[in-house]
Amino acid sequence: MPAPRRRRPRRHDGTSQAEHAVFDATEKLMVSKTFADITVADILTQAGMSRANFYHYFASKYDVLAALLLRLGNEAAELARTRIVSPDRISTQLVETVMTQSLELWRAHGTVLCAASEWAHEIEEIGAAWADMRRRFVEPMTEHLRRDRAAAGLPDHGDDATVATLLACGIERTLYVTLRGIEPRLPSSEDAFATIRRLAEVASDTDFHAHLPARPAAEPAPPAVRRDPSAAAAAATDQVILDALAELLLDLPIQDVSVARILEQARVSRATFYFYFASKDDAFLALYQQMSERLVGDFVTVADPAAGRPASSTDLVRPWLTLDAAALAVFRNAVHEWTRHPVLRDAYLEHARTMTQTIEDALRAGRESGVVPEGPAAEQVAATILWTVERGIAGALVGEEHLEDLTRVADVVGSLVGAAVLQDPPGH
């Protein structure tokens, strides 16, 4: 976990010569180094400025990234104002505009935006700037969806902001995976846009609202199930350690969990821990593999295309809703840590590929049987769906704005995908 950081000493508008020098230096450094490896000393050397001058404006390198994001957000908002006109269905055109300007922004400042995506849930000020950038799209999109839906006489389920946020998530995540080159089914960013465009088109259509279940009355969350200490003795020692780590993750993020805490929770010695695991990260990887294999197995089972058509689109998210509190805690950490940790990333992407292949097979089976209409290449649709769902679930697991309710996010994204891509019949 990064050391405690000082707050930015004072507010600046990001237009001074010194600030621009820091911004330019940081972007240049990120071409050849990860943000994690960049130090303030590196920035000073690249910018040719003194440490005192740097700290007049910024408290840390994280402040630099947050300020860069705020500047890019202002530029994007101004660009949007010059492009939006008023067609009959403004929400669709707004998504088209956002995709276009997002692509331009990621191409020009991709290293900054990738770093922001990777650190937004670790560093408070970066997360706030990242949320502000997304809000600039979500708020007008929400308003336009409401207008389109009302004009069509469609019911109000109170989910316009959730739909707008999920569209933003789809754009964000597909741009990230294409720019990082980690999704072979999407060799270029534009490959995802046809599917996202279709998601936007149906967001205020009758089919989507016909699929969307009514919002249930709020119910208190069930208490987390804690492990029974008496049962630990019967488990293998390595499993006792993993169970202890899972227990700690119910209350703490992985970066706040130490080996010492695990030893105390598991009641094992340090030597015993290191006999089984090389580090805390190694133990977390083993725990993630265990939980993820169960999730992927359930996903493949419910989305099996053997019946000749894709399963209901709700099957794309149903496995997440059956996870217990411990598994959800593991995934809450994994979905925000995988982008910064190579070993975890490899495991995460392997499981993502399995789920994407299942969606692709289901699409092909549905198209061959005539149940699902033709459209963009099945591999591109499958990858776009997977990463949109994944990013939406990631946001729901940490309670991001408009994604606080995991069950409702699952209802909305499942119905949206069903109406846009799979064309589920009523009742699915």
How would you describe the overall organization of this protein?
The chain has 428 residues and is mainly α. The chain has 19 helices and no strands. The longest helix has 30 residues, at 90-119. Mean pLDDT is 84; it is low at 230-234.
Summary of the model, kept short:
With 428 residues, the chain is mainly alpha-helical. It is built from 19 helices and no strands.
SSE string, helices as H and strands as E: HHHHHHHHHHHHHHHHHHH
Largest sheet: none
Tally of DSSP helical segments: 19
How does the overall form come out from the CA principal axes? globular
Look at the helices and sheets and give the structural class: mainly alpha
Radius of gyration: 23 Å
Query: How far do the termini sit from each other?
Result: 44 Å
Number of strands: 0
List segments where confidence is low: pLDDT < 50 over at least 5 consecutive residues. Answer: 230-234
Helix content: 55-70%
Strand content: under 5%
Task: Explain the layout of strands and helices.
Layout (H helix, E strand, L loop, with lengths): L16 H16 L7 H8 L3 H7 L3 H23 L6 H30 L4 H28 L8 H20 L13 H10 L3 H6 L17 H4 L4 H13 L9 H8 L3 H7 L3 H23 L15 H4 L3 H13 L4 H28 L8 H20 L8 H17 L6
Helix pairs in contact: 1-2, 4-5, 4-6, 5-6, 5-7, 5-8, 6-7, 7-18, 8-18, 8-19, 11-12, 11-14, 14-16, 14-17, 16-18, 17-18, 18-19
Notable traits:
mainly alpha; 428 residues; single chain
